[in-house]
Amino acid sequence: MKKTFVIGAGIGGIASALRLKSINHDVKIFDRCKEIGGRAQKIIVNGYQHDTGPTVITAPYLFKELFKLFNEDIENYINFIPLNPWYRFYFDDFSFFDYGGTKESTVNEIKKFSSRDADGYLKMLESSKSIYEIGYDKLATFPFHDFSNMVRIVPDMIKLRSFTNVYNHVSKYIINENIRKAFSIQPLLVGGNPFTTTSIYCLIHYLERKDGIHFPLGGTAQIVNQLKLLLKKNNIDIKNEHSLNELNIKNKKVISVKINNTELKNFDNIVYNGDPITLYKKILKGNISFKNRFLTSNVKISMGLYVLFFGTKVKYKDVPHHSIIFCKRFRELLYDIFNAKHLSNDFSLYLHRPTATDINFAPNDCDSFYVLSPVPNLALFNDWDSMEKLYRKEIINYLEKRLLKNLKQNIVHEFSMTPNDFENDYLSYMGSGFSLQPTLSQSAWFRYHNKTSEASNLYLVGAGTHPGAGLPGVLNSAKLLMNII
């Protein structure tokens, strides 16, 4: 029986442990945090619950597969609730667009803005399906540590015009600027700028249409809790508050690891579920291939995230589960987020109101929220100690003006996470929210490989590896691991 250490228990690490256990590996998990789940934690304040991790659940079948590996029915563990709408987009002219439900309802919503774009949307959806069949079915579920695999896929990528960015691809079908914004923001969910992210990520439109968007009762932390039960039920040992200090590589093989300053040698494989940039810059150091030295030296990292959590003593019943609030600037704001060395004075925000679906997230007649603002990573801006309070105040004022009436007087508690927290708590390089940006030059073979070239028994899963960030990305990185380990 092969013995495998999984270092890092984010969703990708948990999924890897389960999948390897199902093929008869003896698996042990080490994680530096007090609880497994990576960013998918839950914080409870006076009866208000706050998910700290991913909240948009697409492709729930990938979770179902993990339970099915052990002849378990996920419905006995997790209750996924389909959402409708998937998102509500609020524009700077105070109009809004409900996106989700049936294809017909989406078309009718689009007609409120542009009758011509209703036909354009259907054509865009067909294009998204074609991209999905290549970009998801062939790329996301297939390893790319061998360059010959990349060569085989190049003709398909050229055919799909993957060198085009997401915004330009959407604009080919949509003329109304508000709808263009709504259908271009998906790359931000995986750390990319719509004006630089490869149009491969337009597959998200078909993925959403195919599987819908869901919310698990109890939140994303409930998924983690139930996966933890599955781990324990199958005798997978979990060691929390255990940090990786060192990997010792000799003759292209990891021969020992140092965890909590204790050397361990009794393993066959190492699966690393963490930011690969941190791994290559701070842990592997000199034992790095030319390809990975070049990538690590020239890497384009994702934006940072500022997340404000708050509870209110009233209910905002007209606010849906997921909202995107656009300011007037779009291209210019995105440029500032990904390039400027300062915080912008305006915002485009994602607002999460879980109490729209699960009333247990707050006391009776109250609401639980978090609002996420994309911000420059720490390589660009690193003055949160002096700016956080002012930035928080401006966001609350903005939400009160745009959507949440009398918010300031209705907030009962609030706390935040800045890029500093992402760097300190999760070892995210420069506090990035999603590790590498999903540009064409950082995708597939050009991304960090799942099977490393540095050691024959060292494997990578998670947001910074192939196929990329987001729950489907990290779950698929664990899935393809089964075929290469």
UniProtKB/TrEMBL annotation:
<keyword id="KW-0285">Flavoprotein</keyword>
<dbReference type="GO" id="GO:0016117">
    <property type="term" value="P:carotenoid biosynthetic process"/>
</dbReference>
<dbReference type="InterPro" id="IPR014105">
    <property type="entry name" value="Carotenoid/retinoid_OxRdtase"/>
</dbReference>
<dbReference type="InterPro" id="IPR036188">
    <property type="entry name" value="FAD/NAD-bd_sf"/>
</dbReference>
<dbReference type="Pfam" id="PF01593">
    <property type="entry name" value="Amino_oxidase"/>
</dbReference>
<comment type="similarity">
    <text>Belongs to the carotenoid/retinoid oxidoreductase family.</text>
</comment>
<dbReference type="InterPro" id="IPR002937">
    <property type="entry name" value="Amino_oxidase"/>
</dbReference>
<keyword id="KW-0274">FAD</keyword>
<feature type="domain" description="Amine oxidase">
    <location>
        <begin position="11"/>
        <end position="479"/>
    </location>
</feature>
<comment type="pathway">
    <text>Carotenoid biosynthesis.</text>
</comment>
<dbReference type="InterPro" id="IPR008150">
    <property type="entry name" value="Phytoene_DH_bac_CS"/>
</dbReference>
<dbReference type="GO" id="GO:0016627">
    <property type="term" value="F:oxidoreductase activity, acting on the CH-CH group of donors"/>
</dbReference>
<keyword id="KW-0125">Carotenoid biosynthesis</keyword>
<protein>
    <recommendedName>
        <fullName>Phytoene dehydrogenase</fullName>
    </recommendedName>
</protein>
<keyword id="KW-0560">Oxidoreductase</keyword>
